[in-house]
């Protein structure tokens, strides 16, 4: 198959100004259901359609418990939908998504390995020779601003520094799709900004598809090209789809003062507020 035929096979979605956009992820009528106590089932996500282009930074925002992590797990191939289909770069997903790199809220660094070893391991497990992996790991540590920290152990780093190592550990494998689940959640506000800035810098140098889950609307607007809003569960669905047309490169510490930011924030919050209240009331009912 020629390159252009391959492009056509990615389907009809985005043809912008005559340029075919390759699709990294396509969820088609995806529903997710969990078996719970007493032989019952809990329908977390219902009939969800979602496309992500191969260079698109998509943020997924919704109240706690609505199914954001569940959706990422489906894209990662960790969770099979009860119904619907998942395509990754035009192919049905079977088993683990090998194109994806996953960054969670909790870091997954090995405490007994040095920072350099923690980053290199990402390549070593895919068969790259140890000495080559170390050279590449050092380059990645330089890129995330930790060039001089390779011989430290994770316990010697701050939360923000550990996140940087986590980013290097994922990006060294050069995944075509980045799945990020509230990755900067545990960090303080200033460090979150710095990490957001670093993420955008790395992403702009080599644009990949990103699915970035956050409950923080400010963070979503500052980082993303597009934001989808999920409703409160059960049977959560996508209830809003907003393009962020604030130009790049963005100064994410200052972007909050941009009138376009405030305007978009207002529109999205209008869609999100009721869902947040619904989710909050549900939590209260369960807690009583
Ligand atoms: N393994 C599971 N078994 C049963 N229910 C689950 C399981 N995983 C998630 N859920 C439920 O599915 C819903 C969505 O969860 P999750 O995707 O983690 O939400 P979010 O990431 O948006 O906070 C929640 O109500 C959660 O309790
Ligand atoms: Mg979650």
Quick overview:
This protein has helices at residues 3-8, 68-75, 115-124, 130-143, 159-171, 189-205, 217-223, 259-287, and strands at 15-16, 19-20, 23-35, 41-53, 57-61, 83-88, 91-92, 100-103, 177-181, 209-214, 226-230, 238-243. By secondary structure, it is α/β, with parallel strands linked by helices.
Protein architecture, described:
This protein folds into 2 domains: 3-99 and 184-287, Rossmann fold (3-Layer(aba) Sandwich); 104-174, no CATH class. It contains 8 helices and 12 strands. The chain has helices at residues 3-8, 68-75, 115-124, 130-143, 159-171, 189-205, 217-223, 259-287; strands at 15-16, 19-20, 23-35, 41-53, 57-61, 83-88, 91-92, 100-103, 177-181, 209-214, 226-230, 238-243. The N and C termini lie far apart (60 Å). The model is unreliable at 1-18 (pLDDT under 50). The protein binds adenosine-5'-diphosphate (ADP) and magnesium ion.
